[in-house]
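Q: Please design a sequence for this.
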């Protein structure tokens, strides 16, 4: 069996070492143009040349939860795309969103600003019932985030393209449930896959439907958010602010309004990083299952090319 590794902007050596340890009797190599045909590929944002040359792949394993970059390319016919369905990312995402939510709810950003000015201040405690959280996207990551927020006694709502059930979460789905979901949400968390249908989903029209004083947490993709619309709604007072980990252009350009805006916090796309050892173990387990005859459609994380996630 031959496995090829083609991951843009990734230090290949630790991955190759881990994959070789997992497959000691097989060939694991870094892809180069003209390389021999492989059975499986481990990829992240590969060039089109790779996909054109490796037309006989049984499956490609994407080393991240999001496959939007891969879906823009012309894929080999018959090659399944399999994304990581957790691999240590869900707990990181739950940590990040919980931090962002609590920082805003407890007004810790305001206390931080006061402390920098030498002020000993007090803010009246706020009621959790007044801060319903809405999680857009109820996949593996979204469900973990929603369940975690429940532990802090916030009302939690969820919205997804198709109907989902998460214990303790008031779930909505489809276009028919979107407006009602937004209208009852004060803290909006985006964990959607980026598809043509979800591109620009957070815009002036949709964000205006949030409860007054709404707050936005985006940990999905920058393409979900119309940045100028967010700025306008924050500056008008309809939104209280935002914490953003992803952007339309990354790294965030110097001089961008988000850098210095007092009500917007930014982090450098670090809410949930791929954990190499966990990812290799997951990929190795799935390849072993396929080699043992398990139908690929039954694997967790197989991407539906029509839905693009």
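A: Design:
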């Amino acid at each position: 069996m031959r496995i090829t590794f083609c991951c843009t902007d990734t230090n290949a050596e630790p991955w190759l070492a881990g994959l070789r340890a997992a497959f000691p009797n097989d060939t694991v190599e870094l892809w180069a143009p003209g390389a021999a045909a492989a059975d499986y590929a481990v990829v992240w944002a590969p060039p089109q040349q790779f996909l054109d040359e490796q037309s006989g792949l049984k499956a490609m394993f994407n080393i991240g939860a999001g496959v939007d970059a891969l879906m823009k390319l012309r894929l080999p016919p018959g090659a399944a795309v399999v994304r990581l369905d957790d691999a240590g990312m869900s707990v990181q995402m739950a940590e990040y969103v919980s931090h962002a939510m609590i920082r805003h709810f407890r007004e810790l950003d305001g206390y931080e600003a006061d402390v920098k000015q030498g002020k000993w201040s007090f803010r009246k405690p706020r009621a959790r019932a007044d801060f319903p959280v809405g999680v857009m996207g109820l996949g593996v990551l979204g469900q973990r985030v929603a369940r975690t927020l429940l532990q802090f006694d916030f009302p939690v709502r969820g919205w997804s393209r198709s109907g989902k059930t998460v214990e303790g979460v008031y779930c909505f789905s489809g276009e028919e449930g979107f407006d009602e979901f937004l209208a009852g949400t004060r803290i909006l968390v985006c964990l959607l896959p980026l598809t043509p249908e979800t591109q620009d989903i957070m815009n002036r029209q949709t964000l205006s439907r949030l409860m007054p004083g709404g707050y936005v947490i985006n940990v999905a993709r920058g393409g979900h958010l119309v940045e100028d619309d967010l700025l306008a709604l924050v500056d008008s007072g309809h939104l209280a602010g935002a914490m953003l980990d992803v952007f339309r252009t990354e790294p965030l350009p110097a001089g961008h309004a988000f850098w210095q805006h007092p009500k917007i916090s930014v982090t450098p796309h670090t809410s949930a990083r791929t954990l190499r050892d966990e990812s290799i173990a997951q990929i190795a387990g799935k390849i072993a299952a396929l080699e043992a005859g398990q139908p690929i459609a039954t694997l967790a994380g197989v991407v539906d090319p029509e839905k693009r996630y």
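Q: Thanks. Anything notable?
A: The radius of gyration is 21 Å. The first helix runs from residue 12 to 22.
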